[in-house]
Specification:
Elements: H1 3-24, H2 33-55, H3 70-92, H4 94-108, H5 114-135
Helix pairs in contact: 1-2, 3-4, 4-5
Length: 146
């Protein structure tokens, strides 16, 4: 990352965090506390990154080879999968979409022990339901299965 790339990334992170904090402002039942905390941490780290770029400009002097391949695109693909997962929560419901997400992502990152994946899913589904619905009494978005 070049010197200006680091500065632009820091400014974009600050703007994104401010946007997310603004959107969380009207969350009910003090639901804005965690988003505000997360956004504050993002802003603090971005400010430190911005300040460092002025006082230690030689940190990013080496060139990074730009490569396009499966291993290099994996983080972007996982980010896209997470975005699709979040959107599916409201269509399929939290439990169904989380179960599908966990199984799909586990296979995507390379785990091929299908017995272990199924066993984990069979154990996690009732545990998630018991923890959120019975213990925390949180009303998670409903969908196809639950």
């Amino acid at each position: 990352m070049t010197l200006w790339g680091e500065r632009i990334a820091a400014i974009l992170c600050i703007l994104f965090a401010l946007f997310m904090a603004y959107n969380a402002w009207d969350f009910p039942a003090a639901g804005e506390q965690f988003p505000f905390f997360s956004c504050s941490v993002i802003i603090l780290i971005s400010i430190l990154m911005l300040v460092r770029s002025y006082f230690q400009p030689g940190v990013f002097t080496e060139e990074y080879p730009f490569k396009i391949g499966y291993e290099h695109l994996k983080p972007l693909i996982i980010t896209g999968i997470v975005i699709i997962y979040v959107l599916c929560i409201f269509e399929l419901g939290y439990y169904t979409s989380t179960l599908i997400f966990l199984i799909f992502l586990t296979i995507f990152v390379g785990v091929r022990n299908y017995k272990q994946i199924v066993l984990t899913a069979v154990i996690m589904f009732p545990l998630m339901y018991a923890f959120f619905e019975l213990f925390l009494q949180a009303r998670m978005p409903r969908g196809i299965l639950v």
